[in-house]
Amino acid sequence: MDQPALSPQLIDAFRNILGPHHVISDPADMAAYVTEERNLFHGRAALVLRPRSTSEVAAICALATAHRIALVPQGGNTGLVGGQTPHHGEVVISLNRMDRIRDIDPASNSMTCEAGVILENAQQAATRASRLFPLSLAAEGSCTIGGLLSTNAGGTAALAFGVARDMALGVEVVLADGRVLNALSKLKKDNTGYDLRNLFIGAEGTLGIITAATLKLFPRPRSVETAFVGLKSPEAALQLLNSAQNEAAGALTSFELISAIALDFSIRHGIDQRHPLSDQHNWYVLIELSSPRDDARATLEAILGQAFEDGLIDDAAIAMTLNQRAAFWKLREEISASQKPEGGSIKHDISVPVAAVPAFLEAAGRAVTDLIPGARPVPFGHLGDGNIHYNISQPIGADSAAFLARWDEVNAVVFALVRAMGGSISAEHGIGVLKRDQLPEVKDPVAFALMREFKTLLDPLGIMNPGKVLA
User: What pTM does this model have?
Assistant: First the structure.
């Protein structure tokens, strides 16, 4: 429901908490906070608040509870499901000013960051401490630690290191009433009752606002080797994955599957992009090994050599320089953006069991093109953990608006296959509002009921990011 306008007295109260320069009320200045990069969601806000500290966030929440003011927490505003957008005139809490790295402890392999720390800055801080923070995704130059944890982001290294939840030792959270839950910890072992950390990670700000987190660090690899591989089919890619895991074990850190059309789009619409191999292939794999020893190159060569002998791959190029490695990854990272010049795109972030990926791709391709003849599936993603970004570009020459109007129809077809294969309709992007209405259909009824009960317990007034995840 639309939120009532704030009184001048309440606006002054927020200014007293933050200072006048960190309360934004001009619509032009708020514009960047009420839209998102895909231009799917257009919202409006009563105010944008920019706190600097946990105590300021706590004071904001306490005041909001006292006056039933709805709040929408926001980090880098890179979310893809509308979870960070104020849809009904809520107050936005932008956490970008909370950008301090409070502590780096190499001996404990941990780092404590505030919610507004940009992922790339966290990675660089870990590097300066001779450690690795492995969470990595295309938006790492703008997404923030708080947003990544709130959506339980995945990324390209989830195969070896897990998703955001797996990289958090503890969190600091401000609750709706202004209380601060200090669950920050450097401990790997702490068996003292309920683990509240995971209640807030992935909750998209609906239960509380993550203001800081203690993150796991890892030893920096001594050798990193990357290859771009051409092959005939997802089945061949799956066999290559199994072979690579057997040979490289924990050194296999990324295994990205890319369709021919996805690579074609990236080359066609990217800047200074070129084909990584001498010939075109039906499918490609971007594979990366990271090792604490100087053996990644020999291991990768052994994997690829055996794959050639077994007939699994047709061609491969190993990056010989850091620039070539960066060029390989740039081709992968720009796939989503490269779909824009091709017209409307209906996007899915799904996961199925790894072994079911080839069957899913074949069945989904048939189902989508039967529904919309000429539609162009553009699948790519993290084969190593079964997470495929199953995007569909409009037929060539079609009307974009008419194509996008069939989003729900396409969703129904794709999600039906995902459910039949025991998969998830949201692998790493969250629920937000984009998938909110589908959640009751795919979630275990008891689990869904418990989610509602937790929401009522921690946010009885329903002011924390209302309308997201739960209708």
Answer: 0.93
